[in-house]
Amino acid sequence: MSSPHRVGLLSWVVALALFTDNFDASVVNLILPMLAKEFSLTLNQAGNALIAYYTGVAFTLPLGSFLSNKYGTKNCFILACLFFLAGSLLCGFAYSLFLFLLGRFLHGLSSSLLVPVGRNLLIERIEKNHYLNVMSIITIPALIGPLVGPLLMGFLSENHTWRYIFFINIPMVTFCTLIAIKVYPVSKDTPTVSFFLTGYIYLLVLFLMIFLALHSAGVKFQSVFSFASIVFFVLMLGFSFSYVRMKTSSFIDLSVFRSRKFTFWFIMLCSGRFFYGAILALIPFYLHYCMHLTLSNASYLMSLIAVGGLLSKPVVRFLNSFLSCEFFILLTCILSGASYVVLFTIDFYAAPMIVLGLCRSLFMTSSNAMGYMVLDSSKYNSLSTYIAVAQQIFQGAGTTLAVVMFAAGIEIHNITAVLFIPLLITGISVTFFFIKKFNLYNTTPEKL
C-alpha cells in the first residue's frame, strides 16, 4: 500500500483529470450555436459534435477492463490523458468542422477510459476502510465541473472566444500526465488476457446504437430512427451477451453476475444513476417554464446542487466512522425522496436543492465504494467497466427521458411520478443487502 500522503496526491491528481472531463462535457452544448455560426452550419450539423463524442465513448467503453489487464492501469490512465490533451488541442485550433469532430471523438475515447481507470489506479493502493474517503475526493470534480463550466463559458464567449474553453484544459491535463508518469507506482502485474474481436464488434455496435437512439430521441421524440435504434439495441444486447459469455477472460466479464451481491448492487447503481440524471435535467425546465423563474435565477438555484455536493465530503468523513455504505445509500434514498416531493409540491427551493446535491454526491461515493467491497480485487477492472456503463448509458437515458417527457407536454406531476420509480428500485435493491439469508453481512469479497 502507498503512504497516506502519496495516496492523497494521487487522489487529487485523478480528481483534477476528472474535473477537466466533466468541465468540458458541461459546455459543449453551449458551444454548438457559436460553432454553427463560425463554420456556417445549421444547428443540427453542429450537433454532430455530440455524435462524434459518443462514438469515441462507444469504441473504448468495452475496452477499459481489457486494456487495464493487458497494459496496466497506469499506462491506460496516461493514454486517456494524452487522448484528452490531443482532443483539446484539435478543438481549440479547429478551422473546420472535421477537425472539431475529430477532437470530440478523441475526447470520447478519453472519457470512457479516464473515469474507470483513474478510479482503479487509486483502489489498487488503498485499504478498504479508506474507500469512502477517497471516493468522496474524486467525486468532487463531477459536481464542480458542471457548475464552473457554463459560468466560465459565458464569460469567455462574451469577452474572448469559445476556443479558450478547450485551452484551459491543456495545462491541467499536462500536469496530470506528468504526475502520473513520475509519481504513480508501476501497476501490478496482470495475467495475459485474450481479445475477443467478435464480441467487441457486437458491443461496439450495441453502444453506438444506444447513444444514437438517446441522441435522436432527445432531438425528436417521435423519431423513426430512434425507435429503430432502440429495437436494434435490444437485439444486439442479446447477441452481445451470448457471444461475450463464451470468453469470460476477454474485455468484459459477465461471471461477476453470479454474485447476488453484485447483481443487486448493479441494479441499484443503474437505477440511482438514472434517477439523478433525470432529476438534474428536469429541474431547470421546471423552474423556468413551470415556476416562471428567469434563466439566471434558475442557474443560481442549480448551483445549490453543487454546494450540496461539496458538503458531502465532511459528511462522509463524519458518518464513515459508524455507518456502512449500505446505510449511506438507504439514507440518500430517503432524503432524496423527501426533497424530491418538497421541491415539486411546495414553493420552496433552496433547502431541497442542497439536500439533493448532497444525496447525489453521497450516492455516487457510496455506490462506487460498495462495488469494490463486494468483489475480489481480481475483478476490479471489470467492475470499473460496469460503473462506466452505468454512468454513460443509464445516466444519459434518465436525462433524455426527462427532457423528452417535458418536451412532449406531459404534466409535471406525471413526470415526477414516473421518475420516482427508479428511486424506489434503488431503495429496494439496497435493502436486499440487509437480508440474512443471502449472507450479505459477510465482508469477505466473493471469489468468482
UniProtKB/TrEMBL annotation:
The subcellular localization recorded is:
Cell membrane
One GO cellular component this record assigns the protein to is: plasma membrane
Q: Which GO terms describe its molecular function?
A: transmembrane transporter activity
Membrane-crossing ranges are 49-69, 76-98, 104-122, 134-156, 162-181, 193-218, 224-244, 264-287, 323-343, 349-375, 387-409, 415-435
**Topological category with respect to the lipid bilayer:** Multi-pass membrane protein
Principal localisation: membrane
Keywords per UniProt: Cell membrane, Membrane, Plasmid, Transmembrane, Transmembrane helix, Transport
Q: Which Pfam families match?
A: MFS_1 (PF07690)
Tell me which Gene3D superfamilies the record gives. MFS general substrate transporter like domains
Q: Which PANTHER family match?
A: BLR6921 PROTEIN, MAJOR FACILITATOR SUPERFAMILY MULTIDRUG TRANSPORTER MFSC
Instruction: Please state what the protein is called.
Output: MFS transporter
Native organism is Pantoea ananas (Erwinia uredovora)
